[in-house]
């Protein structure tokens, strides 16, 4: 059987920002990300919770070097959203697992999560597509995570 994962890439120096208590309104969310884009910062992974009592939480990743620019941009929204809380988690690495075989191999995501759990590696953020799973983890766990994925999936 061929491995569902054929490639692993890593990206270092990644910060995770979580915005708590954003109105569950697409126009407000678009305004926030438009302002970040206009500030010249490229956002990578984005994850949103389901709406609850009219609010959502949104997490996204960016390069560490862009943190202060984004914080300056987000500060302008504090007046509009008085319950807005901004959580920052720096010193992370993004590990992306790619493979066309993921389309037809049920349980691939579950197995990668099991491997991380077996190696005591906490997941900060997950994003997926049909052929890609990306994990944001602590930079200190990078080598251990890459090793376990390469060994299990024979890459």
Residue runs with pLDDT of under 50 for 5 or more positions: none
Portion in beta strands: 35-45%
Given this structure, which CATH class of the largest domain is correct? Alpha Beta
Radius of gyration: 17 Å
Instruction: Report the count of strand segments.
Output: 6
Individual helix count: 4
CATH homologous superfamily of the largest domain - what is it? ACT domain
Shape field: elongated
The SS-based structural class is alpha+beta
**How many domains make up the 3D coordinates?**
2
Determine the CATH topology of the largest domain: Alpha-Beta Plaits
Write structural notes for this entry.
With 155 residues, this protein is of the alpha+beta class. A hairpin with a 6-residue loop joins strand 2 (46-48) and strand 3. It folds into two domains: 7-12 and 92-153, 2-Layer Sandwich (Alpha-Beta Plaits), CATH 3.30.70; 14-90, Alpha-Beta Plaits (2-Layer Sandwich). It has helices at 26-38, 67-75, 108-118, 142-153, and strands spanning 7-23, 46-48, 55-63, 85-98, 123-128, 132-138. The chain is elongated and about 50 Å long. It catalyses: L-aspartate + ATP = 4-phospho-L-aspartate + ADP. It holds the Pfam family ACT_9.
């Amino acid at each position: 059987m061929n491995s569902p994962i054929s490639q692993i890439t890593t990206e270092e120096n990644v910060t995770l920002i979580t915005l708590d208590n954003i109105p569950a309104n697409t126009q407000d969310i678009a305004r926030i990300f438009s302002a970040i884009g206009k500030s010249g910062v490229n956002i990578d992974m984005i994850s949103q919770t389901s709406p609850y009592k009219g609010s959502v939480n949104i997490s996204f990743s960016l390069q560490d070097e862009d943190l202060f620019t984004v914080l300056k941009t987000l500060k302008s929204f504090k007046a509009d959203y008085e319950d807005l809380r901004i959580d920052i988690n720096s010193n992370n690495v993004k590990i992306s697992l790619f493979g066309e075989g993921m389309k037809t191999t049920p349980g691939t995501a579950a197995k990668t999560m099991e491997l991380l759990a077996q190696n005591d590696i906490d997941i900060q953020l997950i994003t997926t597509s049909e052929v890609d799973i990306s994990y944001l983890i602590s930079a200190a766990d990078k080598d251990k995570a890459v090793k376990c994925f390469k060994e299990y999936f024979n890459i």
